[in-house]
Amino acid sequence: MKDFKAAVITKSNKPLKLLNIKFKKPESNQVLVKILYSAFCSSQYGEISGIKGKDNFLPHCLGHEACALVIEAGIGVNKVKKNDLVVLHWMKSDGSDAGGIKYESKDYPKSINAGQITTFSEYSIVSENRLTKVPKNKFNLKILPLMGCSIPVAISTLEKILNVRFGKNILILGGGALGIPMIHYCRKMLLSNIEVFEKRTKAIKKCKIFGSSKVYKNTEDHKLISNLKNNFYDYIVDTTGSAKLLSKILKYPSRGKTVLVGVPRFNQNLTINTLKLNYGLKLLGSYGGDFSPEEDLLRYLSFFVKTNFNFKEYIDGTYSLKKINKLINDYKNKKIFGKALIKVTN
């Protein structure tokens, strides 16, 4: 087979390089796939811009949510076969964990690292436990990559970590890729008040379209402060990763559940009076919301299709792999509020 194109990060805070990668055959417990669509996650922007700190794996491939066709399954792979349609996800599912790999390129002098899953490329070798088979010709291909990270992580956090219930009140910090599906889910679960903190004008508009009860854009809003002081919220979810914002929210008394989903900068710290924990604050973490792809992926996908989630409004743009750096710049310049897709191959 011919070489294939991959977007590779070689230096932090620099444009990705589109390199020709030499084909490799999958080894034991690995699967060679042809990427159809990939989604772009804030985690990738964090890697590219250095939000997560020093990158010890440069140069490396990127991406962790996509839909693809299986080209070849390595020895020991039992869950998929050639020509299966699959969703690629960063959370582990059934199957073996094959570990990372290294690629070579005639365009770059060093070996290129890749983890158990990467998706910003025409082809990819992924670990068996990072993909899940889905039915062919049942779902729009453009919505399948969304089931690799943002939507299932958002919903699994609400369902499994917070266990949200009918008639309760929730405050969602951030109306973006995670916040929007949370609004939709809470509306369908008939929560009484679905309130959002969001500063960006276009994102505020999206929150209202998806059914938020109220959107605050200032932490000094009197109604927001009153609600926080009076323990109005049964649940608070942070999707922003802003330690500064969360510190402001948590300075007020709270006996509800607060869960942290967003990823903060590596040098940011949350400030909180720990006495609040004694008084009933339940501060929780969410690692992927305990999303179990084998059990949850098709269930969540079917739910969002049946409840008429507005995927068209959620997807802010579709870019070619050649335009990956334009996508990154658009994200940096706050032109993307929901999700962006990369159409990789036909």
Walk me through the structure:
The protein has helices at residues 42-49, 150-162, 179-188, 201-210, 222-229, 243-249, 275-278, 293-306, 311-314, 324-332, and strands spanning 4-9, 17-21, 30-40, 60-61, 66-73, 85-88, 101-105, 108-114, 123-127, 131-133, 169-173, 193-197, 214-216, 235-238, 257-260, 282-285, 315-320, 339-343. The protein is of the alpha/beta class and 346 residues long. It has two domains: 4-148 and 315-343, Quinone Oxidoreductase, Chain A, domain 1 (Alpha-Beta Complex); 150-289, NAD(P)-binding Rossmann-like Domain (Rossmann fold), CATH 3.40.50. The strands form four sheets. Strands 3, 5, 6, 9, 10, 17 and 18 form a seven-stranded mixed beta sheet that branches. α2 (150-162) packs across α3 and α2 (150-162) packs across α8 (293-306). The protein is globular, with a radius of gyration of 20 Å. The two termini are 17 Å apart. The relative contact order is 0.16.
What features would you highlight for this structure?
seven-stranded mixed beta sheet, six-stranded parallel beta sheet, Rossmann fold, Quinone Oxidoreductase, Chain A, domain 1, 27% strand, 346 residues, alpha/beta
